[in-house]
Amino acid sequence: MYQLARPALFAMDAESAHRFTLGALRRAPWLLSAFPEAGEDPVEVMGLRFRNRLGLAAGLDKNAECIDAWTRLGFGLIEIGTVTPKPQPGNPRPRMFRLPEHGAIINRLGFNNAGLDVVLDNIRGSDRGGARLGINLGKNAVTPAEHALDDYREGMQRAYELADYLTVNISSPNTVGLRDLQAGQARDALLRGLADCREMLAQQHGRRVPVAIKIAPDLEPDEVRTLGDAVVNVGFEALIATNTTIHRDAVAGHRYAGEAGGLSGDPVREPSTRLLRLLREHLGSACALIGVGGVMRPEHAVEKLRAGADLVQIYTGFIYAGPALVARSVDVMRQAGFTQVKP
Predict the structure, then answer these.
(1) Regarding the domain delimited by 2-335, which CATH topology (the fold level of the hierarchy) does it fall under?
(2) Catalytic site residue 126?
(3) Could you state, in order of their start, the residue ranges of all structural domains in the chain?
(4) In three state form, how does the secondary structure of the chain look?
(5) Which of 46, 49, 191, 257 has its CA 20 to 30 A from that of 8?
(6) What is the pLDDT of residues 221-260, one digit of tens each?
(7) How confident is the model at residue 4 (pLDDT cuts 50, 70, 90)?
(8) Which of 172, 264, 272, 329 is catalytic?
(9) pTM score above 0.85
């Protein structure tokens, strides 16, 4: 079915096709019932039991509009956002470009979203089924870097009761200065402030919501190790490796190669997997790892697990391969032997 619909969707510009698809799934979530539902392959990660290891990455459903639809595909985890405290339009259009020859997308959306009020209301009105829900938090573009903690803390405080886990996005290349929060004193102050906030909320709500930090694939190895250590030292449960890349070597010569923004899909698979492997070798079992970046086929999901991931997320692969990728990937991961529930 998707292979029949894809030419029409790809005849639209990328962002229009995205909005059209989300609108259709919001109004008729049953459309995804035409595709196989992923099976059970339980695993325990971050102190949570997931029905299987495959998740929807943040960015596809920024406003939590289609959770009812995603649950019909049987995802083990659904991560919505990135959401900011206040609504914002993002960067000027056009800001999203397909590179089909490379199985890739370039986007410079800039955390376009409806804001926390709308997103949290959408979550309250949805049915996540057996999936775990992650809420991916960002800062507003107008918030100065020195006040970034205020935005992330507000997001954490307001999203805490609805989230199974929270993700702090400090790695998008499309918000000026955001990636600076991955290093040095800015990183340490942010992590300490959010750790203190989480402790307060854990006491207030009587449960400890896990926190993941999403990082960029463009960091140097020493930067990756230092960042991993910092996340473990404040007691956060997971790292998500990785966001999009700003490098263009893999798509050099393409007519969109010069477009600003983050490159996702097949070109980021190898660098994100390499970083994932580095983190697992450095951190051992001290931290859960969620692998994302370039999972275009089921075998790529297995590749992430072999590199050290506990869970895997998809986005660009979903756009190119369609909804059937979900059940197929869970089946292939199960057949590869990644079926144990972690203690």
Answers:
(1) TIM Barrel (3.20.20)
(2) no
(3) 2-335
(4) CHHHHHHHHHHCCHHHHHHHHHHHHHHCHHHHHHCCCCCCCCEEECCEEECCCEEECCCCCCCCCCHHHHHHCCCCEEEEEEECCCCECCCCCCCEEEEHHHCEEEECCCCCECCHHHHHHHHHCCCCCCCEEEEEECCCCCCCHHHHHHHHHHHHHHHHHHCCEEEEECCCCCCCCHHHHHCHHHHHHHHHHHHHHHHHHHHHHCCCCCEEEEECCCCCHHHHHHHHHHHHHCCCCEEEECCCECCCHHHCCCCCCCCCCEEEEHHHHHHHHHHHHHHHHHHCCCCEEEEECCCCCHHHHHHHHHHCCCEEEECHHHHHHCCHHHHHHHHHHHHCCCCCCCC
(5) 257
(6) 999 999 999 999 999 999 999 999 999 999 999 999 999 9
(7) confident
(8) 172
(9) yes
